[in-house]
Design goal:
Length: 63
């Protein structure tokens, strides 16, 4: 690193690099959570539908 202004202009501060990296990691994590959340919701609704079908069959045989 020289003391002239051209060398200093080329240097990117570490804080800015880390800030961009943290934003990228946060965006990746949000995307991952969104896809995992969608899977969980689908499983829950699937289980509820299955339980409803089982209850309907059970109630037909009881009556």
């Amino acid at each position: 690193m020289g003391n002239n202004k051209k060398d200093q202009a080329k240097h990117i501060p570490t804080k800015e690099v880390n800030n961009v990296e943290n934003k990228k990691q946060r965006a990746n994590r949000e995307e991952q959570q969104k896809t995992q959340g969608d899977k969980v919701v689908k499983w829950i609704f699937g289980a509820l539908v299955l339980l409803a079908i089982i209850y309907m069959v059970w109630s037909m045989f009881i009556v």
